[in-house]
Fold:
Amino acid sequence: MQYRRSGNSGIQLPVLSLGLWHNFGADDPYDVARDMVLTAFDRGICHFDLANNYGPPPGSAELTFGRIMKEELRSHRDEMFISSKAGHDMWPGVYGTGSSRKNIIASCNQSLQRTGLDYFDVFYSHRYDSSTPIEETMQALVDLVHQGKALYVGISKYPAEQQLEAYNYLLREHVPCLLSQYRCSLFDLKARRDNFAGAVGAGSGIICFSPLAQGLLTGKYSDCIPADSRVAKHSPFLTQSHITPQRIEAARKLGEIAKKRNQTLAQMALAWILADERVTSVIMGTSSVKQLESNIEALDNTVFSNEELKTIDEIVNNPQISF
Structure:
């Protein structure tokens, strides 16, 4: 496994991290989830990305991970870097969502209970909440560090202006932002354009999620909608309306480039993100050990020729495929 330093910190993360957004909930097979986590750890992936609302149902991914930790990995805790987040809908009532101090701290406490951990290595504000002052949200994160419930803090999906406000507040409180998490893929270039430079300027690492555009960059939708796909399972994050002729054609063209590189489309999509040296790590979402191991093989070829990059740019710089 390859590792990169996170911003100006002393923390190194594997360039590929394992995310538990999908496939680790109560409705998913525990044995498969366990095998993916253990395989990832054995292959040098020491960073595992959670959030309080991951499941379904919300909270169940943390319960699954907590069970794996208790039964398999407790003695390896200090070799692991574990994150969680708060900010999206979690429990009923006005305090169960958003980025208020009450929600952030209550969520962290609940997440620690579900995972059985004493602390998180990094705890994120999962989203910008326009109804809560940034100072309130950031101070809650700072206080979690002072309370020993998190070693570092991060932000996720913050717009560029609010991103900089968050960095400045955290720097004044001597708890700098370790990681900035953004959606990024060949079909989603917005964060590269709007957020990466600000993160680098503030000394924050960058970690990317949804690198395969919820499966659009795997080639699985070229001919039909597979029965085991997210679309077939009625995922709110990928619907049939997302599978447009323009995206299918772009994926086909990108697949041809990948084939010449002796890679799958998914492997090339991961390698393309990592070709940007500003990126600390990419969060993979996998549904099987086989898929996990295939994704790791992306690291066998992360170098692109100028001609490849030019051709890829011509394909992806198209508003019709922006995801």
